[in-house]
Design goal:
- The complex is a heterodimer of chains A (109) and B (122).
- Chain A is mostly beta strands and 109 residues long.
- Chain A has no helices and eleven strands.
- In chain A, strands 2, 4, 5, 6, 9, 10 and 11 form a seven-stranded mixed sheet that branches. In chain A, strands 1-3-8-7 form a four-stranded antiparallel sheet, with no helix packed on it.
- Chain B is mostly beta strands.
- Chain B is built from no helices and eleven strands.
- The mean pLDDT of chain B is 96.
- The chains are: A mainly beta (109), B mainly beta (122).
């Protein structure tokens, strides 16, 4: 069974930069895993930020970017804003099924 | 603007079948570029993908749920539906429907419903 792992929690200062990562127990994450990143705030539905590794939707703020780093999918926030405090989930396509990571709680402090 | 809306019973008894419908407005469900999916989230926990369907009825499911899940589509009503059988308390969750972009190298759950809480309890 595929397990997708994220950092449980991270803290960043306003204006700072932080990178969240997403790994698979099946091996290195590649573009073929079509990494997606979602932001979820309490009581709200998830909102897609990044799809297929690095593509942004029209609503994705410019400070969010996606990439592959050292066999992992990565979401980088540059110039963090207080409203970026949220839970972030990655999603990978693994062996014909979509698997979510456990989520990273990002605190802006 | 595309909108998705989940509907169905908020309370289901153990061992019974959970049934939800997702109504799509602001766009047609008949499109070659998209699948339509279900995702759930137990209270206080993470997200879990349940399965996807396209307008012609082609499906693929989470292997851990596949034996209990059926997703269907009704193009005349611009809706798709989820049935989950033999439910237990572990199936208590907020259930979301979403549109899934699937064209060329692009894969994205882009538009989501607001979610509906289903509680499994006697």
């Amino acid at each position: 069974q595929t397990v997708v792992t994220q950092e449980p929690s991270l803290t960043v200062s306003p204006g700072g930069t932080v990178t969240l990562t997403c790994t698979s127990n099946t091996g290195a994450v590649t573009s073929g895993y079509y990494p997606n990143w979602f932001q979820q705030k309490p009581g709200q539905a998830p909102r897609t930020l990044i799809y297929s590794t690095s593509n942004k939707h029209s609503w994705t703020p410019a400070r969010f970017s996606g990439s592959l780093l050292g066999g992992k999918a990565a979401l980088t926030l540059s110039g963090v804003q207080p409203e970026d405090e949220a839970e972030y989930y990655c999603l990978l396509y693994c062996g014909g099924a979509w698997v979510f990571g456990g989520g990273t709680k990002l605190t802006v402090l | 603007q595309l909108q998705l809306q989940e509907s169905g019973p908020g309370l289901v008894k153990p061992s019974e079948t959970l049934s939800l419908t997702c109504s799509v407005s602001g766009g047609s469900i008949i499109t070659n570029s998209y699948y339509w999916g279900w995702i759930r989230q137990p209270p206080g926990k993470g997200l879990e993908w349940i399965g996807n369907i396209n307008y012609s009825g082609s499906t693929y499911y989470n292997p851990s749920l596949e034996s209990r899940v059926t997703i269907s589509v009704d193009t005349s009503k611009n809706q798709f539906s989820l049935k989950l059988s033999s439910v237990t308390a572990a199936d208590t969750a907020v259930y979301y429907c979403a549109r899934h972009l699937a064209v060329a190298q692009s894969r994205s759950f882009d538009y989501w419903g607001q979610g509906t809480l289903v509680t499994v309890s006697a």
